């Protein structure tokens, strides 16, 4: 497994890096999810440290957690506890589905764009309806079942997830509704 441990405007010593690899490795081995890489970032805001961790699993799912504390090790430990809880829930859901994925998740290549926010008054019409692209990145769209997509969205803490529906030809979307339920958009079933 590949670890990337860094600090935003703070130095990360080798003792902390070793601690992160040992503790995070223990949590990941406990649930044997075959992680491919982990990205852990430490930052400091005032007197408080923040630890953000993102772990990519070979199943195509991503688990992320973050925590704040007045000590850097305590921030990491809080983040690890949240990651442990997420992976435990994920493993329980996999057992509940009685389905073991025999092959890794297929990923479709796509382009992702970041558009500039519109900066005009409500009374004033924009000069053009074409938004300005400020960044372009490569992204991957996973091929998942609807249940796996909902699980991935919840693990990532994302409000929406675009995925290729396994066994179908089109793209689907799952999203969290304002009433707390999960919405699912399936264009193939449109009449």
Automatic annotation (TrEMBL):
**What main location does UniProt list?**
cytoplasm
What would be one Pfam family of this protein? Ribosomal_S30AE
Which GO molecular function entries does the Swiss-Prot or TrEMBL record give?
A: ribosomal small subunit binding
Name the Gene Ontology biological process terms: negative regulation of translational elongation
Name the GO cellular-component terms. cytosolic small ribosomal subunit
**InterPro entries noted in UniProt:** HPF/YfiA_ribosome-assoc, HPF_long/plastid, RHF-like, RHF/RaiA, Ribosom_S30AE_C, Ribosom_S30AE_C_sf
For the Sigma 54 modulation/S30EA ribosomal protein C-terminal domain, which residue ranges apply?
Answer: 130-183
Keywords carried by this UniProt record: Cytoplasm, Translation regulation
Q: Where in the cell is it found?
A: Cytoplasm
Q: What does this protein do?
A: Required for dimerization of active 70S ribosomes into 100S ribosomes in stationary phase; 100S ribosomes are translationally inactive and sometimes present during exponential growth.
Assembly behavior: Associates exclusively with 100S ribosomes, which are dimers of 70S ribosomes.
Xref: HAMAP family: HPF
PANTHER family in alphabetical order: 30S RIBOSOMAL PROTEIN (PTHR33231:SF1)
The entry's family comment says: Belongs to the HPF/YfiA ribosome-associated protein family. Long HPF subfamily.
The family database entries (NCBIfam families) matched by this protein are listed as:
yfiA (TIGR00741)
Please identify the protein, giving its name as recorded: Ribosome hibernation promoting factor
Name the source organism.
Celeribacter indicus
């Amino acid at each position: 497994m590949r670890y990337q441990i860094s600090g935003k405007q703070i130095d990360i010593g080798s003792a902390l890096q070793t601690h992160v690899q040992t503790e995070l490795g223990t949590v990941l081995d406990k649930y044997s999810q075959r992680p491919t890489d982990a990205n852990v970032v430490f930052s400091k805001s005032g007197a408080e440290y923040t630890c953000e961790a993102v772990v990519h699993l070979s199943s195509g799912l991503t688990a992320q957690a973050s925590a704040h504390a007045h000590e850097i090790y305590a921030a990491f430990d809080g983040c690890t506890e949240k990651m442990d809880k997420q992976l435990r829930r994920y493993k329980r859901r996999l057992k509940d589905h009685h389905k073991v994925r025999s092959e890794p998740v297929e990923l479709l290549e796509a382009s992702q764009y970041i558009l500039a926010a519109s900066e005009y008054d409500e009374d004033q019409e924009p000069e053009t309806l074409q938004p300005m692209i400020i960044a372009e990145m490569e992204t991957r769209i996973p091929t998942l079942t609807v249940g796996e997509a909902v699980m991935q969205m919840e693990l990532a803490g994302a409000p929406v997830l675009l995925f290729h529906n396994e066994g179908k030809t089109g793209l689907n979307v799952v999203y969290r509704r304002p009433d707390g339920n999960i919405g699912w958009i399936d264009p193939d079933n449109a009449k």
